[in-house]
Prior knowledge:
- The protein contains two helices and six strands.
- The protein has about 80 residues and is of the alpha+beta class.
- The protein has a six-stranded mixed β-sheet with strand order 2-1-3-6-5-4.
- The longest helix has 10 residues, at about 20-30.
Amino acid sequence: MRFCLYDEQKASVLSVMDKLGDAIKKMVQERAKTSLRIYPLLTREEYEAYPQSFRGVVNGRYYLLYSLNEDMGSTYDQVIID
């Protein structure tokens, strides 16, 4: 799973990283911008590979029930479709 630094005010992806740690470092560097979020970045095929009960679209935004690792548990949050 790749990750992106997403600017909520501009509704645009600023950068893409292969590792969550790299995305966190980039976000710390850009800390002056409060509208930044880190989201998983998936292709449409990756997104649709999840069961339909794990996916959803709300107000044109894609959501997914996913887990980054076994220790963190699952979360239902926005994802960006590339």
